[in-house]
Amino acid sequence: MRLVLVGPPGAGKGTQAAILSEKLGVPHISTGDLFRANIGEGTPLGIEAKSYIDAGNLVPDDVTVRMVESRLAEDDAKNGFLLDGFPRTVGQADELERLLGNLGTTLDAVVQFDVSEDVVVERMLARGRADDTEEVIRNRMHVYDNETAPLLDHYSDKIVKIAAEGTVEEINDRTMAELNKLK
Ligand code: AMP
């Protein structure tokens, strides 16, 4: 399966992606994790991305798309993948379509995690990541509303909407039930 997960910061995409990746047998590709790994290793990509991430802004599309392109070219992504945190702009979605077109494939579905703002803030403050200060969280939400939410219209024919409140297991069960309907 080739899936994209969409939802506001703190919606639980990463948590669900890790479980779904095991169950579906496809790699979990998180652009946030890839950036953080590059920052940790001090690569040129990490150095370039850090100031954007620290401020809660998006890393420029060209940098992000190149990173995803090389990750999708790896062997384990040949038969499917779960993209978590990419695309985050309509421009990135267009680039993804182009990349997949070159590989002769398309997305099967776009899973939207639907969650209230109160729950999102609670979850982010609980995980305590470096970019989870109140000011940066606010900016990431603003960026989500402005840059990423338009993807929901863009992908309207592929959206599978999941009520993403409740326990991790409940949300996973709902997601698996919806994905099983696609088969
Ligand atoms: P995440 O782990 O998905 O919350 O991403 C953490 C941060 O990495 C975001 O706030 C952005 O600064 C950056 N980032 C992750 N994915 C993307 C993307 N697709 N495009 C641009 N920036 C991204």
Report on the structure:
The chain has 183 residues and is α/β, with parallel strands linked by helices. The protein has one domain: P-loop containing nucleotide triphosphate hydrolases (Rossmann fold), CATH 3.40.50.300. It has nine helices and five strands. A five-stranded parallel beta sheet has the order 2-3-1-4-5, sandwiched between helices. Helix 1 packs across helix 9 and helix 4 packs parallel to helix 5. The longest helix is centred in the C-terminal third of the chain and has 15 residues. The radius of gyration is 16 Å and the shape is globular. The structure holds adenosine monophosphate. It comes from Corynebacterium lactis RW2-5. Pfam families: ADK. One of its GO terms (biological process) is AMP salvage. Its main location: cytoplasm.
Topology:
Elements: E1 2-6, H1 13-24, E2 28-30, H2 31-41, H3 44-55, H4 61-72, E3 81-84, H5 90-102, E4 109-114, H6 117-127, H7 134-148, H8 150-154, E5 159-163, H9 168-182
Parallel strand pairs: 1-3, 1-4, 2-3, 4-5
Helix pairs in contact: 1-9, 2-3, 4-5
The protein binds adenosine monophosphate.
- Report the average pLDDT across residues: 95
- Tertiary shape: globular
**Class from secondary-structure proportions:** alpha/beta
Tell me the number of helical segments per DSSP (H or I, 4 or more residues long).
9
Summarize the amount of helix as a percent range.
55-70%
Binding site for ATP: 10-15, 127, 166
Keywords: ATP-binding, Cytoplasm, Kinase, Nucleotide biosynthesis, Nucleotide-binding, Transferase
Subunit structure: Monomer.
Pfam family, one: ADK
